[in-house]
């Protein structure tokens, strides 16, 4: 190891030394995101988060691979008086990372809330690890871990310079519990949780908070693909989960950065 800081590390240290590190929420101020980027926003929890954030006044960029459902969600938000912009892109494609971040900032201004909701189960029906192809595992890791890492690298530095930002990683109980056939997905979410904690440790004092949230079992298409015989009436409504995550964002700073939280234990936004 050498004692010289990299450019990014030196910048973080310099910024932290000249500004108070006390988060706004800890001083009694609610964090109200002005410009949000939500991945996996064409349906399910991502769409519900986009609707809720727009309802609270944020300008939202919706990212997913399929344009038509994205446009439908954006139109629905606009009809309710909100501002939303669909952006068809693949979070798992390295070549699209800077394009996503640049287009989002051009549409709504500097991003101060980034929600990593996009993810893939991999091949379904879910196979046991012995039957999981290396390429399938690689794709799950690329979408669920590497893609969020790349996008955070592009966005979080600017957040730190502005001393303002929240990054939310949507996790899963499969990150902490070993379920047969959920090995690839669970490993990716465990890695995402640890990235969230490490981002928080490295950017402590910059005004940027990181959280991992386990949304619980929800009535979504992804859940139906994984467990087709599940009773939808026993599953959480994504809209309820979205309100709880939005409430967490509003308390950013009050809740320690790096925390891993269960949505069911969070209060809903008013």
Main beta sheet: 7 strands, parallel
Mean pLDDT: 90
What gyration radius follows from the Cα positions, in whole Å? Answer: 18 Å
Which class best fits the helix and strand makeup? Answer: alpha/beta
The number of strands is: 7
Uncertain runs are 16-27
Helix content, binned percent: 40-55%
The side-by-side strand order for the widest beta sheet comes to 3-2-1-4-5-6-7
What's the end-to-end separation, in Å?
49 Å
Shape: globular
Number of helices: 8
Helix and strand succession? HEHEHEHEHEHEHHE
Strand percentage lies at 5-15%
Can you walk me through this structure?
This protein is an alpha/beta fold and 270 residues long. 43% of the residues lie in helices and 14% in strands. The chain is built from eight helices and seven strands. It has a seven-stranded parallel β-sheet, sandwiched between helices. Strand 5, helix 6 (183-202) and strand 6 (208-214) form a beta-alpha-beta unit. Helix 5 runs parallel beside helix 6 (183-202). The longest helix is centred in the middle third of the chain and has 29 residues, at 134-162.
């Amino acid at each position: 190891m050498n004692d010289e800081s990299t450019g990014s590390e030196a910048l973080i240290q310099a910024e932290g030394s000249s500004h108070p590190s006390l988060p706004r929420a800890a001083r009694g101020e609610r964090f109200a995101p002005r410009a949000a980027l939500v991945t996996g926003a064409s349906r399910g929890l991502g769409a519900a988060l986009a609707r809720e954030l727009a309802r609270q006044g944020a300008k939202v960029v919706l990212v997913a691979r399929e344009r038509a459902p994205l446009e439908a969600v954006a139109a629905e938000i606009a009809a309710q008086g909100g501002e939303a912009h669909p952006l068809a892109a693949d979070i798992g494609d390295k070549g699209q990372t800077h394009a996503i971040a640049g287009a989002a900032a051009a549409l709504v201004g500097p991003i101060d809330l980034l929600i990593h909701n996009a993810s893939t189960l991999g091949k379904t029906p879910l196979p046991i690890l012995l039957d999981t192809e290396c390429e399938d595992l690689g794709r799950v890791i690329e979408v669920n871990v590497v893609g969020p890492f790349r996008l955070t690298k592009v966005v979080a530095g600017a957040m730190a310079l502005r001393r303002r930002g929240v990054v939310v990683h949507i996790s899963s109980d499969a990150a902490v519990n070993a379920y047969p056939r959920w090995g690839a997905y669970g490993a990716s979410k465990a890695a995402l949780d640890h990235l969230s904690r490490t981002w928080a440790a490295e950017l402590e004092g910059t005004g940027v908070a990181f959280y991992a949230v386990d949304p619980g079992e929800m009535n979504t298409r992804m859940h139906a693909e994984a467990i087709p015989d599940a009773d939808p009436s026993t599953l959480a409504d994504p809209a309820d989960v979205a309100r709880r995550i939005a409430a967490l964002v509003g308390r950013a700073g009050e809740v320690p950065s790096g925390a891993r939280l269960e949505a069911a234990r969070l209060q809903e936004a008013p």
